[in-house]
């Protein structure tokens, strides 16, 4: 197991015209469960490849504990990798597939057998141990890939690169839950790359949200939802994402287009750049009092209803309380403690 650290780490591909991964300092604690979350092209796979040793960064250092591994190849970093598409040996049984990494390292047969049976039990593969891998579906094959990463008890970290992409949607929830259970059973550093917020937030204890080669925020799922440090995080996390309205801020007042005023929980100094007021739909509610809005449509999501509105000439999403009829003259209530002010895309702390 390893504590993984980055010191001024950055990467630019030759002829790429800039950083694919912008300079960063970051630490992943030993035995933590982490996720790299972001859209395609944001740099998350580049960062994972640097951790694994498949790619050497153009700047900075990678540390495993106190050891500088920046120049070490993959085979000397003692990491296990699980890729998007299952990598299994079809001519082998499930048991032989799981035992393969141990056999390569000369683990005694009895010890290898016990470890294989333990991992198979964790993954629900016990019944399939003596079946040829070629007869299994994609989900079982991906379980084998997961198992080969877990079967070694000496790895520094296990790296998952979009491991559930090819899995049937009905089985994704089961495998996500099983991965979380596995991390409790096998306390090893795990890093999970995905563009799917549900996968990231249900697996990881801490999530690094990436955009355009930069980690814009790393935090717990709760922190990312309740206090996004960047407008990208507010937009990317949540369904629907955070509402953002252009505004001017004077002390504790946010001035919206159309002459509307919103009282803020904190006072703010003079702000420069693009200033926006942010609040999540969960903390904005249709009511009989508050800001005037226009209803464009309602979306019934079963357990809740989302009202698509227009506020100050901008689209806005809010919740409609269960059982509440649509108001004849709709108004909007905003929870003051959940209002956030952003300047240049960054969260402003406000003054006491």
UniProtKB/TrEMBL annotation:
Alphabetical list of InterPro entries matching this protein: AAA+_ATPase (IPR003593), ABC_transporter-like_ATP-bd (IPR003439), ABC_transpr_FbpC (IPR015853), ABC_transpr_MalK/UgpC-like (IPR047641), Mo/tungstate-bd_C_term_dom (IPR008995), OB_MalK-like (IPR040582), P-loop_NTPase (IPR027417)
Pfam families in alphabetical order: ABC_tran, OB_MalK
Any one GO MF annotation of this record: ATP binding
Sorted UniProt keywords: ATP-binding, Cell membrane, Membrane, Nucleotide-binding, Transport
Domain (ABC transporter): residue spans on this chain: 4-237
Superkingdom of origin: Bacteria
SMART domains to which the protein is assigned, alphabetical: AAA
UniProt key word Transferase: no
Record-stated family: Belongs to the ABC transporter superfamily.
Record protein name field: ABC transporter ATP-binding protein
